Amino acid sequence: MRLFFWFSILFLGQLGAQETLFEGHIYDAKTKAPIPYVNLSFLNTLKGTSTDENGHFYLDVPTAYLEKQVHLSSLGYNDTIVTAAKLHRAKRFKMAPESFALEEVVVSKKLSKAIFLNPISSYSLSSGFASSDTPWVLALYFPNIGQQEKVLDVVTIFQRPNVAFKRDSASFRLRVYDVEPGTKKPGRDILRESMVLRTDKNQEYISVDLSDLQLKMPKGGVFIGLEWLFVPSNWYTNTYEHPISKQKVLEDRFAPTFGAVFTKNQNFRAMVYGMGEWTDFVTKSKDYAENLIPAISLKVLRN
Known about the structure:
About 0% of the residues lie in helices and about 50% in strands. The strands form five sheets. Strands 11, 13, 14, 15, 17, 20 and 21 form a seven-stranded antiparallel sheet that branches. It starts with a strand and ends with a strand.
């Protein structure tokens, strides 16, 4: 079974709506250096983009969107909400680095026993996730079962082949969140530096060694997030038939295409972050016995 999902909703807009080039640069408020890979999302819409390696962003938007608010997000910086008109006028915008107290991870014993959570093989992939319209974060929850002390060791992320994407590689950002006690949604990112990864288009999976970071498994478990970056090197187009007009539509999309698997294990909860909030992602198998989740495996160590 070959299924592909992309995060977008189809809207029928007015033809001939006036558009504006929404463009500018994002800088660090302290160092004045440009900030790469900042995701900008128009709240309550499915419109967004990312800064490139030089902190530059640009996007054609309906002129009416300048009255909307834009959510700016980048690991290591305070999330910021600002009006699009202010960004549009200023052209240069500064983000404040996030202030946090470094937490020293003290492992009381040498941890050597490996546990694989959600083990996956490339043969078990049944579908894939691509992104369009606005940068999303796709996250999978891994529970912390048992009382033993654990540290995160290796994350393995599977991807699906995509013939529409012609470039040799694509990039994305890895996120690692703890869990908010009340909502059970992703909380703060326990990574303290932006981890942008590059994957070859013919690569079945990418493994990320986290052992040097000594990230202790939070008591409430952890969410592993995959964040799309809307940069030119990830861009490609896809043609599909509009479900109402039946006309062919050319759509912008962004690589990579992450793999997905069906599972009966209810512990693994998939969520997506977009338009400023986390929501559950629930897709059932035909018999409603399994849930579709991103193909992510996590190796932890315990004593």
